């Protein structure tokens, strides 16, 4: 079975930046799973996954607009430190979580003050070309429940 709409793809990946530095990997842990066509992963990776089958190994290099987008200088703001989730002392350059009405999102601290911080809400990987080294482990038909919920369930997917 090939990856296509309403299929669940289970895969391992290694993510590298433009310099070839490894940023993260699922290898050595549980593979990731997503429902194809439900926008569960970044657009360029989902497009690159289409048509592949279990056992396929490939690399996909994504330009910023197909990954986490271009950096937007307008996405900087000052927020009270109490809205940030971090351990230790808040410092410039740290990637922390910002509590929002839509849940937590990663932000980068530009300047830390005693009671507030100047943050950049662009995704930390925005503006970068990224390479995914992918190994497709399995492809299966999604269940009716997965299609209704808009995401894969079980190992590597969403847990209710």
TrEMBL record:
Among the record's GO biological process terms, what is one?
A: protein refolding
Q: Per the record, what is one GO cellular component?
A: cytoplasm
**Has the keyword Thylakoid been applied to this entry?**
no
Coiled-coil annotation reads: none
Q: Where is the PPIase FKBP-type domain?
A: 6-94
Where does the UniProt entry say this protein principally localizes?
cytoplasm
What compartments host this protein? Cytoplasm
Taken from the record, one Pfam family name reads FKBP_C
Give the EC number: 5.2.1.8
Q: PROSITE patterns given for it? A: FKBP_PPIASE (PS50059)
Which UniProt keywords are given for this protein, alphabetically ordered? Chaperone, Cytoplasm, Isomerase, Rotamase
Question: Which top-level enzyme class is recorded in the Swiss-Prot or TrEMBL entry?
Answer: isomerase
* GO molecular function terms attached to this record: peptidyl-prolyl cis-trans isomerase activity
State the source organism's domain of life. Answer: Bacteria
Q: What does this protein do?
A: Also involved in hydrogenase metallocenter assembly, probably by participating in the nickel insertion step. This function in hydrogenase biosynthesis requires chaperone activity and the presence of the metal-binding domain, but not PPIase activity.
Q: Which family does it belong to?
A: Belongs to the FKBP-type PPIase family.
Official protein name in the record: Peptidyl-prolyl cis-trans isomerase
Organism of derivation: Seongchinamella unica
What does the record give as the organism's lineage?
Bacteria, Pseudomonadati, Pseudomonadota, Gammaproteobacteria, Cellvibrionales
